[in-house]
Amino acid sequence: MFAIFVLFVVSLADLTLQAEWTYDRENQWPGVCTVGRLQSPINIMSQETILDTNQVHIRGPLVFRGYNDVELVASNNGHTLKWAGVRNDQAPILSGGPLRGNYTFLQFHFHWLSEHAIDGMKYPLEVHMVHIKTGLSMEEAMERSDGLAVIGVFFMVNRGYESAHALEQLAPFVPYIKNSAQNQTESQKVDITRLLSYDPQSYYTYKGSLTTPMCQEIVTWIVMDKPLFITSDQYRLFTNVDVGGDFNYRSLQHLNNRVVYRSVASCASLLAPTFPGTLLGLLSCLSSTLHAGVNKGVGAVWNIKRKLFGDGVKKCAKVA
């Protein structure tokens, strides 16, 4: 009975309004989607971010508790593939970094192409891990500017068995929820730490919104800057899912004078993909971009430039 109750609560926390909205008609989205000033996703320009060396905004490291072996149920809500928790008493807890207090894990879901961009570069896939401020109901969280915290992690496509690690526990369940009419899977144990960047203390953070209607501006975003690698087969598995179209990412939104902070760890050298891996990721991005239309997100030419000739080391030009 308890599990059923928790599933009902999680369904309320879906954060994707089950109404007639589509990604190719963003100008018709309800709520504050077209009028808000703190909308997400954004293009993060690394040299315009603030390195928070004095811990004015980022106060210490992020702390992850209980992210191993979490009981989750997978589903397709017609807009994304989502894995949601079923036992509230064992939900992972996130704290530290830019957060004030604890945040309880609700669910993670995927977007292809990525929703955020870094220095004009989009990635093939992005996962969002949604957390609610501990102790709040969903209705209460929707009324607070710090009601939710969402971690974003990017994925690059690369050849090799080692690239399968991040998604290998999820991939077998995708065919069962390929169509939105297929309901949901049985619960499964998932090691969510596999979906975290290999350096989870290296990230950007800013105040933003949900990226689906009603686009409430209640999210502390934590966007990790070092991507994980997946195989081309895994990428195709996700992009063949029925989500009402060929893509499920929102267009980039205006920054509107917001400050984007970066953690001290983000000044370390980036993992440089091999040339075949970079080319494979590029082709995957271009394939999806051509299906979606190059008018959305960042221009394909700029993506090519950044993917082939991107910086090996990030420059931290601004210091708080």
UniProtKB/TrEMBL annotation:
- Give residue ranges for domain Alpha-carbonic anhydrase: 19-264
This protein's UniProt keywords: Lyase, Metal-binding, Signal, Zinc
User: Which co-factors does it depend on?
Assistant: Zn(2+)
State whether keyword rRNA processing applies. no
Give the EC number(s) listed in the UniProt record. Answer: 4.2.1.1
Record InterPro entries: CA_dom (IPR001148), CA_dom_sf (IPR036398), Carbonic_anhydrase_a-class (IPR023561), Carbonic_anhydrase_a-class_CS (IPR018338)
Specify the domain of life of the species encoding this protein: Eukaryota
Recorded catalytic reaction(s): these are:
hydrogencarbonate + H(+) = CO2 + H2O
Cleavable signal peptide: 1-18
Select a single GO molecular function from the record's annotations and give it: zinc ion binding
Function, please?
Reversible hydration of carbon dioxide.
The entry assigns this protein to a family as follows: Belongs to the alpha-carbonic anhydrase family.
Q: What name is this protein filed under?
A: Carbonic anhydrase
Q: Which organism is it from?
A: Mythimna separata
